[in-house]
């Protein structure tokens, strides 16, 4: 592929970027000596930068987003056609793609019935929190307003989302935060907090202990990722989710599952929670909903939750008084509808299961070869390797050394991720999440690069 074979061809773009763009999650002092990475083209699982270098993208756009891969003309065409016909109208009115995508989405989510549109995962979660808080006022005299969240989980970058996030380094320097968000313990058995046989159930029991401490009459919601993503790729142990469901039903607590990362096939099911037989009240999603071809997020609820905001003649302010300006843009649902068709037509959920099994087998072999790999975990095409300085003590490998591993993988033509600036002393997990179109050859290429990079860095320790 002939993409910017001469880096000078884009010198004006690089200069404009350095002078005017404020990048996400980057310390810009580095750009005084190096140029920012400019990604100029993508096709399938591969991207090309401004120097013409080709890379396998094993993190789906850097943040678990491009589920169906790059260069999907049919999605771009669907968006273009819709925007020409009707690009936008405020969400108080409907649109054809919004109605059709909601119908299609709900068909994959038994027990759910309503879709509220906005345009980012943070915003989708904010909507859910507002629903829980408003229900507290409408039904419980304002008392049942507290929202529980889990240590190591992440729910977004806005102030309330940070208040409900279990990653301390993400929240540092942004307080004070709104009250009423209460943390419960994580469920990572590799770093066990209890010496018990049935660890999953014990980790869920810890949630009940927090509820009893706070007072069940004050707790209105519990927000959890089905599989913790940026906090270390943590699959809850067996027995965890049934017990969580039981606790929520016992104390009349709305169960809110954040599918921003796991949603749209990432784990081999349409949604991560569907691997565990759980029945949520609220599900939020973004990222893979349209595979990054347009901005869209959804807050999906049961009819029971929806009905709490309907037909309350005694309260003129009783409906959900919320708006998302760009929740009215038709590009998102148009892209999302085409994205779902691709997932179905190309049988990408089954491919995710098969390639995920292949990836897990390769990672287990890497763990057996290299002492600095302490744990391998994940599901589908969403997997991680926790790196340690000492396998016996499980002392975490220093974050800077983990970053060297990521760089060494990159030097071999593969882009992977890692936990970073999230968990003090525990930013030591490599993250792999290639697009759901990955082939067997792609998985082998990714695993080969990781294997060789770990060997290279381990040899220097």
From TrEMBL:
Transferase keyword on record: yes
Pfam family, one: Aminotran_3
Coiled-coil features, chain-numbered ranges: none
GO terms, molecular function: pyridoxal phosphate binding; transaminase activity
Essential cofactor(s): pyridoxal 5'-phosphate
Keywords: Aminotransferase, Pyridoxal phosphate, Pyruvate, Transferase
Superkingdom of the organism of origin: Bacteria
Keyword Oxidoreductase applies: no
CDD domains: OAT_like
Family: Belongs to the class-III pyridoxal-phosphate-dependent aminotransferase family.
Name this protein carries in UniProt: Taurine-pyruvate aminotransferase
Organism per entry: Albimonas pacifica
Taxonomy of the source species: Bacteria, Pseudomonadati, Pseudomonadota, Alphaproteobacteria, Rhodobacterales
């Amino acid at each position: 592929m002939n993409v910017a074979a001469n880096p000078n061809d884009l010198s004006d773009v690089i200069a404009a970027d350095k002078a005017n763009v404020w990048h996400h999650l980057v310390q810009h002092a580095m750009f005084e000596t190096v140029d920012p990475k400019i990604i100029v083209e993508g096709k399938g699982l591969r991207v090309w930068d401004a120097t013409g270098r080709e890379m396998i993208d094993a993190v789906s756009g850097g943040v678990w987003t491009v589920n169906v891969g790059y260069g999907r003309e049919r999605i771009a065409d669907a968006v273009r056609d819709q925007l020409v016909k009707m690009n936008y109208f405020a969400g108080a009115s409907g649109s054809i793609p919004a109605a059709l995508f909601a119908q299609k989405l709900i068909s994959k989510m038994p027990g759910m019935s309503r879709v509220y549109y906005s345009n980012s995962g943070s915003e989708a979660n904010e909507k859910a929190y507002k629903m829980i808080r408003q229900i507290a006022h409408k039904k419980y005299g304002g008392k049942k307003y507290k929202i529980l969240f889990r240590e190591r989980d992440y729910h977004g970058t806005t102030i309330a989302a940070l208040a409900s996030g279990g990653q301390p380094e993400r929240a540092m320097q942004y307080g004070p935060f709104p009250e009423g968000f209460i943390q419960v313990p994580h469920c990572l058995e590799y770093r066990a907090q209890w010496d018990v046989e049935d660890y999953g159930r014990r980790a869920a029991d810890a949630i009940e202990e927090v509820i009893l401490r706070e007072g069940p009459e004050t707790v209105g919601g519990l927000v959890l990722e089905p599989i913790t993503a940026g906090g270390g790729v943590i699959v809850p142990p067996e027995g965890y989710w049934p017990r969580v469901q039981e606790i929520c039903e016992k104390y009349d607590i709305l169960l809110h599952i954040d599918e921003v990362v796991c949603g749209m096939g990432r784990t081999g099911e349409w949604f991560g929670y569907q691997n565990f037989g759980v029945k949520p009240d609220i599900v939020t999603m973004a990222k893979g909903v349209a595979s990054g071809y347009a901005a869209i997020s959804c807050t999906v609820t049961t009819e029971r939750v929806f009905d709490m905001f309907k037909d309350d003649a005694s309260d003129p302010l009783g409906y959900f008084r919320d708006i998302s300006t760009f929740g009215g843009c038709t590009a998102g649902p148009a892209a999302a509808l085409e994205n779902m068709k691709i997932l179905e037509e190309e049988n990408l959920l089954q491919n995710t299961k098969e390639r995920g099994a292949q990836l897990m087998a390769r990672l287990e072999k890497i763990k057996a070869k290299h002492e600095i790999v302490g744990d391998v975990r994940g599901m589908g095409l969403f997997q991680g390797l926790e790196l340690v300085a000492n396998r016996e003590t499980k002392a975490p490998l220093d974050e800077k050394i983990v970053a060297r591993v990521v760089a060494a993988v990159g030097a071999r033509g593969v882009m992977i991720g890692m936990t970073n600036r999230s968990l003090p002393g525990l930013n030591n997990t490599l993250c792999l999440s290639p697009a759901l179109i990955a082939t067997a050859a792609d998985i082998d290429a990714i695993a080969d690069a990781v294997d060789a990079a770990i060997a290279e860095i381990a040899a220097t320790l």
